[in-house]
Amino acid sequence: MQRARIAVMDQVNSGASATAATMSKEPLREPGGSAAVPQMNTTAPAARTLLPLWAKIALPVAAVVILALSLGLGLGLGLKHHHGSSSSSNSTSGANATAIASHYESIWSYGNSPPVYPARTYYSGPPAPIPTVAETDNPAANGTGAQDWAAAYSSAQALVANMTNLEKNNMTVGFTVTYTGCSGVSGAVTRLGFPGFCLQDGPAGIRGTDLVTSFPAGIHLGASWNTTLVYDVATYMGAEFKAKGVNVALGPVVGPLGRLAQGGRNWEGYTNDPYLAGALVTQSVAGLQQSVIASVKHWVAYEQETNRNPSGLIASVSSNLDDRTMHELYMWPFQDAVRAGVACVMCSYNRVNDSYACQNSKIMNGLLKTELAFQGFVVSDWGGQHTGIASAEAGLDMAMPSSLKMWAGGILSDAVSNGSLPQSRLDDMATRILAAWYQLGQNSSSYPSLGAGMPFDLTKRHQRVDGRNVSQSKSTVFQAAVEGHVLVKNVNNALPLYKPVLLSLFGYDGMAPPVYDPTSLVADFRYLYGFETLNISDIDLLGIMGGSEEAPLTAQLGTLIVGGGSGSNTPGYISAPYDAFSQQAYDDGTYLLWNFNTVNPDVEADSDACIIFINQFSSEGSDRTNLTDPTSDQLVLNIAANCNNTIVVIHNAGIRIVDAWIDHPNVTAVIYAHLPGQDSGRALVEVMYGNQSPSGRLPYTVAHQESDYGQLLSPSEPGSSGSSDQYFPQSNFTEGLYIDYRYFLAHNITPRFPFGYGLTYVDFNYSLPSNNTLAYVIKTANTSALPPNSTNVVSGGIASLYDVVAAADCQITNVGTGPAAEVAQLYVGIPNAPEKQLRGFAKVMVAANTTEPVHFELTRRDLSIWDVVQQSWVLQNGTYQIYVGDNVLDTPLQSNFTIS
Ligand code: BGC
User: How far is the CA of 19 from the centre of ligand 1 (A)?
Assistant: First the structure.
């Protein structure tokens, strides 16, 4: 079987890598480099941000850990997986365990792993079968410099032609430096004017430095359903990255997609619907790349934090999925990002069908670089590289934050000399990196110098670089904060508020955290990773990032504006709910009472309304353990027992179940406020006082209870002691295409709030256009089964996949008394596919008593399925159901068309 052959290659190549490492005589020096140029450093890595996340945290606080261990607290970094059960490796010890692990490695990694590509089984409904034919070969896929990459490629190729192999090698690896605090710094070739890259987090704004903006997180933008807004946010964010001397912005996020309701990083991405994610990531890439290289991440099927990295004898979890699911769900938004011209893709920590993502030839050479014709470079997630030559051959182009014993120190260059690695691969790696640099115009002398605004230690004197353009970006930052609020309950005219006389405010989420301040390098991770709001010890924080501790359910030290980890950002101020309500009280003459300290406060009987601010925390490094928080639920029930107009605001970093109190008659309004960034409070007031009608819609499904999510609730764990996956955790995506609302529909489960749901202060009516035709196939469209002109492959795949094949029209009438935005949603029932899949949406502002037309276009890809036999998108003959409405379960307009 092919996979077995690849296994042998892996082993051979790993051997070659080791040999090359041994042969390498001296550390690689960047030729002509000065002291300020990234250099190979084989001594102890000192930089706080140039290491895998666990190590970034581990080093500054190593002393604390050692202390903890000596106290017998048993904490370790990545030494055990979490979620209750202790590591199964604990039960089998020493050499025996190692022998068993290596035995199982031969089974799981190379022998018994589910063969996936291509598959002969035709897929027609849940559960998805595991296909049955082995992997095809995925030869190296050199960048071709096609279409709009042509000029960048010819410049890159010309420069590479003048480089030594050592210089090319140098560009592919990260270096430890102390002159800048970038998350990663790649090698330079100063002799030829290439300075290397500063790579910096993250998707919601620049993390861990001063004078930048805290933008709303991905989930908040997802809830806005506003493509223009996402573009504008990304435009300002990209400009900040550039001003700070960053070359590669480590975002946006479309993986995790959000398969698991408890997935710890879902909030970094927009939504668990691939179409919506794709539409938004398209805008984000376009906006960011006006200034900086975007690095869409994490490629691919990275759906859980549990066992995301190897620990002890336990390998990273393997996401096992079939080819069709890969294409129609997890790959879909990445395809849009590539089509939008993204110049960098970050491969993920997990294994995909048992091969580590950053050494998986199928997903990098095959899917990304061949099928999608990606022209930029692939960078490893931090510490996600596990082999030398094998990862290079599989399509990895840059290893971060370093590549000791794998590529660095001339290993790749030696490997070319001794025949272990083709010259063409090393050339392609260097060319892709340089092409991205040229493509984004970073060769211009006006591009800020590497990491210029990213001080290594903020507590030391440094040059002040203000990345912001406040006068320009202010209104966008605010509006983006506004539009991610989703109103899900509003009875008795609870909202909007209008000059209330007496308001009572409650909940730990009401005020800004008391500290937002970088500390010295010894323990600055609270500031660096968005943990200022967590009321837990340094040791516990450390454990979250290292994967040995579960993140708390709530952030108790103040209002939550972003989640934790590398997706966090650094606000210049926080408009907390209390601040904004206080300002509004000043304007209106409202009398405020507040108690943010207890779960059982007394309530002033004459309050016009009682507003409760709670949150639901989530962080990189830890999957969530609960979609509710019993303490917060009790707070709501306590207030509701004494206040007949109780309004609940939840800053939620992911799905939050509310059945404990949502039907309480005194709970009159509820808002999912997500993660709004620094303008949180004033955006909330904008919506709650009706200056703007709420226009957010849920980008995920909220269930009544956790068990409704079935196998889509919790992460997979390693098998029990003695089982074959004890050391090789397996996560089988057997639900195939049926995640989130697709799953709820297929299993006839009624959600609490359906995907796409959200209230406004007005009502809308949907109607057909004047010709009474909802949806139709375009007369001139080519409806052949396979995409025509299949050799015309552009960034994002075959060009004709994006031909418009069908369209739909409707009208929306605002029958209320004020202006409001509606998010019209179009779902398609494709033959042999889930009942409804989002394939169009439009956010439309409609004035009172006014009707607006909405037009949707459906491309060939939107209507196709991925045929695993033909290895192509196929437009099937048959009847396509079209549904239009304001959420997946409320689609008053329905019709169909036939493709024959
Ligand atoms: C995260 C990435 C991040 C990188 C650099 C990793 O732990 O998974 O998303 O970009 O660290 O900080």
Answer: 30
Ligand 1 atom with minimal separation from the 348 CA? 8
Q: Residue with the nearest Cα to atom 8 of ligand 1?
A: 381
Whose CA is closest to atom 3 on ligand 1?
566
pLDDT digits (tens, 9 = 90+) for 108-161: 554 344 433 433 233 334 433 333 333 334 677 888 898 899 999 999 999 999
- Protein residue with its CA nearest to atom 7 in ligand 1: 53
**Ligand 1 centroid, distance to 50 Cα (angstroms):** 10
Ligand 1: residue of 381, 385, 545, 562 to mutate (most ligand atoms within 8 A of CB) is 381
Average pLDDT score over residue span 413-424: 95
Pocket of ligand 1 (CB under 6 A): 53, 183, 201, 250, 297, 381-382, 566
For residue 486, how many other CB atoms are within 10 A of its CB?
Answer: 28
Any catalytic annotation for residue 381?
A: yes
Residues with Cβ within 8 Å of residue 22, at least 6 apart in sequence: none
Q: Angle of helix 62-70 relative to helix 538-546, nearest 10 degrees?
A: 100
**What is the amino acid identity at position 388?**
G
Task: For 204-231, write each residue's pLDDT tens digit.
Answer: 999 999 999 999 999 999 999 999 999 9
185 Cα to the center of ligand 1, angstroms: 13
Question: 8: Cβ–Cβ under 8 A, 6 or more apart, which residues?
Answer: none
For residue 251, which atom of ligand 1 is closest to its CA?
10
- Does residue 11 have a pLDDT over 70? no
How many of the other CB atoms lie within 10 Å of CB of 514? Answer: 10
Q: Which of 381, 623, 679, 886 is catalytic?
A: 381
Per-residue pLDDT reduced to its tens digit, 665-698: 999 999 999 999 999 999 999 999 999 999 999 9
Tell whether the model's pLDDT for residue 747 goes beyond 60.
yes
Residue of 56, 59, 183, 304 best suited for mutating to test ligand 1, as the one with most atoms within 8 Å of CB: 183
401 burial via Cβ count (<10 Å: 0-12, 13-18, 19+)? buried
- Closest-CA residue to 430 (of 741, 735, 187): 187
Determine the distance separating the centroid of ligand 1 and the alpha carbon of 652, expressed in angstroms.
22
Model pLDDT for residues 322-362, shown as the tens digit of each residue? 999 999 999 999 999 999 999 999 999 999 998 899 999 99
Which residues, 6+ apart, have CB-to-CB distance to 15 below 8 Å? none
CA distance 713 to 624: 10
Query: Which residue minimizes the CA distance to atom 4 of ligand 1?
Result: 382
Phi, psi of 196 (to 5 degrees): 85, 180
Going from the Cα of 711 to the center of ligand 1, the distance in angstroms, rounded, reads: 27
Angle (CA) 785-789-792 rounded to 5° is: 130
Task: State pLDDT tens for residues 518-537.
Answer: 887 655 788 999 999 999 98
Query: Which are the contacts of 378, defined by CB distance < 8 A and separation ≥ 6?
Result: 299, 344, 345, 346, 347, 358, 364, 368, 395, 396, 397, 398, 432
How many angstroms does the Cα of residue 48 sit away from the middle of ligand 1? 13
In angstroms, rounded to a whole number, what is the distance separating the alpha carbons of residues 397 and 141? 11
Kindly provide the b/e burial profile for residues 353-388, where b requires at least 16 CB atoms within 10 angstroms of the residue's own CB: bbbbbbbbbbbbbbbbbbbbbbbbbbbbbbbbbbbb
Q: At what angle do helices 680-688 and 577-588 cross, to 10 degrees?
A: 50
DSSP assignment of 478-529 equals: HHHHHHT-EEEEE-TT--S--S-SEEEEESTTSS--S------TTSTHHHHT
- Most ligand 1 atoms within 8 A of CB, residue of 382, 400, 525 to mutate: 382
Assess whether pLDDT exceeds 70 at residue 786: yes
Closest residue by Cα to atom 9, ligand 1, is 566
Check whether 74 has a pLDDT greater than 60: no
pTM of the predicted structure, to 2 decimals? 0.90
